[in-house]
Amino acid sequence: MRSVDLRLLRHARSARWYLVTTVCIGFATTGLVLAQASLLAHTLAAAAREPGLSALRWTLAALAAVLLARALAAGGGEAAALRAAAAVKSQLRRSLLARSLWLGPAWLTGQQVGEVTTLATKGLDALDPYFARYLPQLLLGALVPLAVVTRVTAADWLSGVVIAGTLPLIPLFAVLVGLHTKARSRRQWRVLAALGGHFLDVVEGLPTLKVFGRAKAQADMIRKVTDEHRTATMAALRVAFLSALVLELTAALATALVAVEIGLRLLAGHIGYETALLVLLLTPEAYLPLRAVSAQFHASAEGTAAADRVLEILSTPGPATTAPAHVRRARLDLSAQSVVLTDVGLRYPDRDAPALTDLSLVIDPGDRIAITGPSGAGKSSMLALLLRFAVPTSGTITAGGHSVQGFPVGDWRRQIAWVPQHPYLFAGTVAENIALGEPGASAEDIQRAANLAGAENFISALRRGFDTTLGERALALSAGQRQRLALARAFLRDAPLVLLDEPTAHLDPDTASQIMVTIEALMAHRTVLLVTHGALPSVSTVLNLDRGQLVPAGAPAAVATS
């Protein structure tokens, strides 16, 4: 991570006024540092010449005002920077969530969900030191030394030359140590992300691990990754402490050099007492901001490493989100337009064999098409293309004669109702889960959709009915009940195109038969594409996918439910 990442600052647009305030406070602090040293030197010199407070009351009052102003500037600067950090973190979180949703399941399957979760929470929270302390200190590190050298040179050119000659040693050592720190911090973040991802996977799969007696092995694995994170953290802290020692020693030696030459010249009478005091008071102020920059760089390293990964995700290319002008004028209505796949191919980056090859299919309004085939044949990949979770690597998909990639993705998906093989239910109420795709739906519409899906009976038996809060993934419900809630979503959405991905998989025969009856009702007056391994409702066409290629498996005739 660079000392100042311009990509990250671009996301600070919502916080630009806070950052401008921080810059202004930095300039004010620089002036206050010079004023404090000048007033203090004058006070001490005047007290040595003429003891007594009466002659110094105005000087002391001015010095007290400067000290108070400096304290207020420090507090105000940090408060403004923290507000900037909060605004940037909020913007980055929204962007990360929107980008992850846009990239879709095809991208997420290649990621560690735990890493993305850690990025959006603890990772971005670690940006506070970067904005609240590192950036303001970096500004002071550029302004204060320059102002001090200028002021000291004006008072005593020899001391100014000594300070100007020793100042570059601080950033030189800071850069050398910082290069080592960056590698350590990135390793620490990678281990933390791996720990978060693995822990999430273990917690989600804990029942299965217990059944197969693998819980202890995973506990040992978590212990191993935790030890790696501890080792990486301690290594990063060790570098930070050693760098602080090096910089403190360098600054102390440089300050001592100035103090020795000032003392010798003061004894010889070659420099005035007030000037000597001014130089001695300002010399530590020249080195202090640079030392603080190095310390805050170490404190912000974890946050900047996490932000680097967030920015990498945000720059991941995805399907086009804007439509050309001629497409925006086109009308999208899948209840009256055919969807045509022509020589479509799909290859995932991490796989050798293509998922789909030369797939051609016409889906006319009102069609009921069943797609069968063995596991891994490409059925779910075909649905991913229609849902625009993936982009064809070859061929075209059109609707109404226009490429679907040209339509805004939100408009396209509003035309589709999707029932996945494993529907995800969130930790909300039953009504909220049914209304996932139609958040503004009325209670009556939600109840009607649940009734059409055959879910109203078991919902009514719940403690609070539609207001019952479901836990994460709704594990208290049976697989059939969860599937009915997913079907209720599809009924409520009332979209012209329905995609069903093995809706009866992993269900017992009785439940599967009941679900198929519900699907028959869902098919009415809609275009349906059903992926299935087993029993088929009455469909117009049955097609078979084998190794990514589509082979006709049935003529337009009803295939009875078995």
How would you sum up this structure in a few lines?
This protein has 562 residues and is an alpha/beta fold. The chain is 62% helix and 10% strand. A six-stranded mixed beta sheet has the order 6-7-8-3-9-10, with helices on both faces.
* Tally of individual helices: 18
Percent of sequence in beta strands: 5-15%
Radius of gyration over C-alpha positions, nearest whole angstrom? 34 Å
How are the strands of the biggest sheet laid out side by side?
6-7-8-3-9-10
How far the N terminus sits from the C terminus, by CA atoms, comes to 61 Å
Instruction: Kindly report the CATH topology of the largest domain.
Output: ABC transporter transmembrane region fold
Proportion of helical residues: 55-70%
Please characterize this protein's 3D structure.
This protein is an alpha/beta fold. It folds into two domains: 6-314, Up-down Bundle (ABC transporter transmembrane region fold), CATH 1.20.1560.10; 325-554, P-loop containing nucleotide triphosphate hydrolases (Rossmann fold). Helix content is 62%, strand content 10%. It has 18 helices and ten strands. Strands 6-7-8-3-9-10 form a six-stranded mixed β-sheet, sandwiched between helices. The longest helix has 53 residues, at 215-267.
Which tags fit this structure?
single chain; 562 residues; alpha/beta; ABC transporter transmembrane region fold; Rossmann fold; 2 domains; six-stranded mixed sheet; four-stranded antiparallel sheet; 18 helices; elongated; disordered C terminus
